[in-house]
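ugh ok fine here u go
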Amino acid sequence: MVRIERDLNFDGQIDLWQYLDEAGNIVEEEMDLDLDGKVDLVTFFQDGEIKRKMLALGFDGVFTIVKFYDNDAKLLRIERDETGDGLTNSWEYYENGKRVRLGWDTTGDGIPDTFDQL
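structure:
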């Protein structure tokens, strides 16, 4: 088996897709959270642990938020594309579950140039 499809709200439409590796482990999971037929959340797994999540907030299917996790499934970083140009322009950095630093791209190149330590 390479993919599992589920209709979570029993409306006849698939809401959840899980992709498996050769050993049967989930490596990617896609969800249509707002039931518009487009994937809104993609979760990537490695060795059974969440490594990254991508979230689309609008109805356009564009993923504007990406969350990164460590080996203990603790949040490491959040990257946001707040302008919708496909480039990250704000970052939040976490240590031990607490936000410790913020970063911004002020030049439009997708690389943080200014930081605030919290």
